[in-house]
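#structure-requests
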Amino acid sequence: MAVALPAICAVGLVARYVFYSSRFALADTDAAVLTGNHYVSQLDVASALGAGAEPNLFRLSLDGTRRQVELIPWVQKASVRRIFPNRLLVDVTERSPVAYVNLAGRLKLVDSEGVLLEKPAEASFDFPVISGLDAAMPSADRIARLALFQQFAQELKAQNRGAGWVVSEVDLSDDRDLKALLVEGHETVLVHFGNQDFGDRFRTFVTLLPEVEKTAPAVDSVDLRYRGQVVVNPKADR
């Protein structure tokens, strides 16, 4: 007891010093050393850390702090480590947007998981505008339709080199028929691609359009969903 009691008291004093000393108090906006970020700001992370409101480096829960940081919309995942004596290392992996989405006339960015993101003021993205994704749509449905869009974008990128067509808008309202507005110069054509073989169908479109335009110079839409058949709708006369 003569040995143990002083040792216990010493441990208690050290613990009290570690947990309550101002030396280990986290600074305000400079508490976090932020890495991995492009669009997430120091202020965003400081606000997330402030939500936990634990001022001491050692009393602070790293897992709880990580969860707070991951509530920032642009953060896909984060890791948090202590830096002696009073700072945190916060490393973030940001979300990667894949398109713009039109929600009730307002444009937002969306990533492959269907998470909606505000466009950073300093950022520039060259994406088509997606319609047909309802904010109230179940998450699984949004993810499935975005996966369909990404497959479409990947296959067209492989086929579109030198073709000159730009995908301006994509309608995902029907998961069995992806519709894309294609633009080349002053020409605009709505194309029904269905839900598969996007590259092959785009190649068919590029090959046959010049022939189609010989008999129907003003083409409104082209339907490529039927094997061995192309349905062309000319623009109505005005």
